[in-house]
Amino acid sequence: METPDNAFQAALALIVSLDPTLWGIIELSLRVSLMAVAVSCLAALPLGAAVALWQFPGRGLIITLLNALMGLPPVVAGLMVYLMLSRAGPLGELGLLFTPTAMVIAQSVLVTPIIAALTRQVIEELWTHYREQLQSFGVRRLRAIPTLLYDARFSLVTVVLAGFGRASAEVGAVLTVGGNIEGVTRVMTTSIALETHKGNLPLALGLGVILLLLVAVVNGAAYWIGETARRRLG
Amino acid sequence: MRGEGNAILPLRLEAVGFDAGGQDLLRDVSLELAGVGVSAVMGPNGAGKSLLLRIAHGLLTPTRGTVRWLGPLGGDAALSRARQAMVFQRPVLLRRTARANVQYALAVRGVGRRERRRRAEEALGRFGLEALGERSARVLSGGEQQRLALARAWALRPEVLFMDEPTSALDPAAVKAVENAVREFVAEGTRVVFSTHDLGQARRLADDVVFLAGGRVRERAPMQRFFEQPVTREAADFVRGELVVV
To answer: Which residues does chain A have within 8 Å of residue B156's beta carbon, measured at their own beta carbons?
Structure first.
């Protein structure tokens, strides 16, 4: 049985060794997850705000669907994207399967409902405060969307972080569509899974510690920026 | 609006009623607001004052009756909206600087960038807020926030300004500043309609009084006459400072 000491030593050794393979894995992990979050934000922030502002038939259904999709199993999201991108699939021509792009797509599928559902909640609450004043100015709903997204920016940082957490932590989707190919699609979580299978537990735990640190740094930075701005702007 | 005469006034409400959840909150309100001056909408809590202002301003659609702007431009909904402004009991300020709050309202009305900057400066200066322009609106005091809400409304150069209990949450010094701000509007010829249950404030500011109780207009009279010779029992009770039970 390995002790945590070994894992921390392994992690430390990995970091200190400046192993280029490891850095490649870390870089790819960050690149894929941040890209997936960025792509998701483009779609999910306006979508969440629109669902918050407009009343339409089937709105309850869409909200339920978004909330349910927050719990979409990563491996199922991966499978869906796999079917789309596989050679026989509708987007097979693009040859994207087992590339980082495929991983970005799969993680976007996971993250978009999370950001959309939470954005809907945040914006709906803000809208109840702002509605009358904005209507009084003559602001139409479409024009209100950027205003509300901007004014909710501090809460939305947390929402986006929730999405990033999901993207950086999942293994099922990137494994399914990426294939864990060394030097091409191997990321932190797939490496951890692989090393665990190989019985290389200290290395697996060491990688886990590094992943945790990475997520903590990104969250810490976002929190710090958010709090500083919040204190200044009230 | 300032020096251009009335474009949307007078405002006429005909047999306006409002139901919510099976309750009759406003009944049979017929009212005409014309010309210049300041009207106080008065009455006990729950009389329907806020509701009446929101219906007049177009934030709510009445369940019965009609609201019409009778002036030459009054038929155009967007134009009539652009010539009104409203200030709420709790000022709704955007999470940005005081100056940016004023500029936002102007941008929404399609005012060009340079003109926005000029008018925002003018408005902040007029309401004694020039030193606070770069401060975040959310960190201002309650009185400053309400003055900023008024400066923002003023920058829009409205023909009609609605105010819903604008000073009910403020200390006396801030109330005085807000009342002076209201006089700035009056000096520019803006028609002001505000609700209050503060008798002193109505005396200080109003030219005439619309008195509501139980969702109905009980009395409409010039300010002096309303306070000295109220006609209805409810108004007489209200003026004497007694509880008005309908």
So the answer is: 137
